[in-house]
């Protein structure tokens, strides 16, 4: 509980363990499903007139259990239909439904829903639909009375997915949604925190120590306690900037107009075209005076080569670009051939990476620091990836496809300015 000291909390945990030890197996199982008995204060639905409940917490603090129990309670009240939104469909299924603290685990047998395809149905007729935040267009059409959105700080195209979901929350007397996440300083998270209709709960990993393995607490929590990473991943703090990232949010300047010169579309194509492939980074940028303006992020996920080629050529035509700049380290002939299948007249400028991602990106980040690169509005996903780009050449554990395309675009546009801009 938030008002309980560590000593009092330890005593309560010990008393609880003693109480459970006196129970039969059947009694202990029944008490497991009495969430009102075991929930911490932070895990209880807030009072008041709110539309969004934002539950931010550290790893293992009980975010999934909180979300699953909230949905279980809605189902018991007959609230239907419900949207269950994960970063991907597979994560929604593996964590929100079948996970250790997911819906199948928190519902007793007589309340447990059945799963058919992406649809959950409770014995009382309540329905819930699994959805992927990676495909915001799928939110068009369905309507819901409530939604549980998991790990919203990890969502790709988070604001687009969130906004499309809001249009579907239109059933019942008062549609509400719960967003559970380990916080990151994404545009969506900051927007939700600033919304007066958002109720916020916070919980640290250590607050849930009674339900965590002792080795995890001593090895992982002990190792990262007090660090920037630990404050974010364990204490659930919103850390505005990762000091180890190459870009900081204060480096982004908005484009306030000006004559745009040469425009290029830069492409960082995935090696393969399967659902497990990296995304294809596609960024449009143009010259403005002695600097650059980033005009659009057209990056696309899980595509075949012809899909990203169509997207790149469409961006080329829409912006009246001068060329498409493509990294050809992997299959240069194939890259050229794929673009030629869409339009043989598009000029293609081939580039090859001879240095690591971090080294290639450093001069471009320096230009941001000097105020020479501006952004139009709507580049949230790109900016989030930039602010998570670390020395390991990855962004939040993923390939930085948008960043790669951005670096190629800025570098290409400023190539003819090398004598005047040092460090590029």
Binned, the helix content reads 25-40%
Q: Termini distance?
A: 53 Å
Q: Give the tally of structural domains.
A: 2
Count of beta strands: 15
Q: Could you say which structural class the secondary elements and strand pairing correspond to?
A: alpha/beta
Which outline best applies?
elongated
Low-confidence stretches: 1-18, 419-424
How many helices? The count is 15
CATH superfamily of the largest domain: P-loop containing nucleotide triphosphate hydrolases
% residues in beta strands: 15-25%
Sheet with the most strands: spatial strand order: 3-4-5-2-6-7-1-8
Q: Rg, please?
A: 24 Å
Describe this structure in words.
36% of the residues lie in helices and 18% in strands. The chain has 424 residues and is α/β, with parallel strands linked by helices. It folds into 2 domains: 33-233, P-loop containing nucleotide triphosphate hydrolases (Rossmann fold), CATH 3.40.50.300; 249-417, Nucleotidyltransferase, domain 5. The strands form 2 sheets. Strands 3-4-5-2-6-7-1-8 form an 8-stranded mixed β-sheet. A 7-stranded mixed β-sheet has the order 9-15-12-11-10-13-14. The model is unreliable at 1-18 and 419-424 (pLDDT under 50).
